Amino acid sequence: MQTVNIHAAKTQLSRLVEQAAAGEEIVIARAGRPVARLVRLEAPAPGTRRRLGMLAGQLRAPDDFDAPLTDDLLASFESD
């Protein structure tokens, strides 16, 4: 694990990103104290990709879903 001060990280960001992408962990420090960690992002597991329209036809919104709330229900949201 490599520790780099923030000034050096700003000037060497491209190289540090390449190192992180290769699997190295880089700690960025301010005044000698660690404040951030630069690591490689893991690829999502196969099959976890979001599919658009996956629930098409399975959900139904009521016709009055955007009707104004009743006074007592609205008051329950606004009370302390």
- Overall geometric form: elongated
Which residues sit in consecutive blocks of at least 5 with pLDDT less than 50?
Answer: none
- CATH topology term of one domain: YefM-like fold
Main β-sheet description: 3 strands, mixed
CATH homologous superfamily (4th level) name of one domain? YefM-like domain
Spatial order of the strands forming the largest sheet: 1-2-3
The helix fraction, in percent, is: 25-40%
Strand portion:
15-25%
Structural commentary:
With 80 residues, the chain is α+β, with helices and mostly antiparallel strands. It has a domain at 2-38: YefM-like domain (YefM-like fold, 3-Layer(aba) Sandwich), CATH 3.40.1620. The chain contains three helices and three strands, in the order βααββα. The protein has helices at residues 6-11, 13-21, 71-78; strands spanning 2-5, 26-30, 33-38. The protein has a three-stranded mixed sheet with strand order 1-2-3. Strand 2 (26-30) and strand 3 form a beta hairpin. The longest helix is centred in the N-terminal third of the chain and has 9 residues, at 13-21. The model has no long low-confidence stretch (mean pLDDT 90).
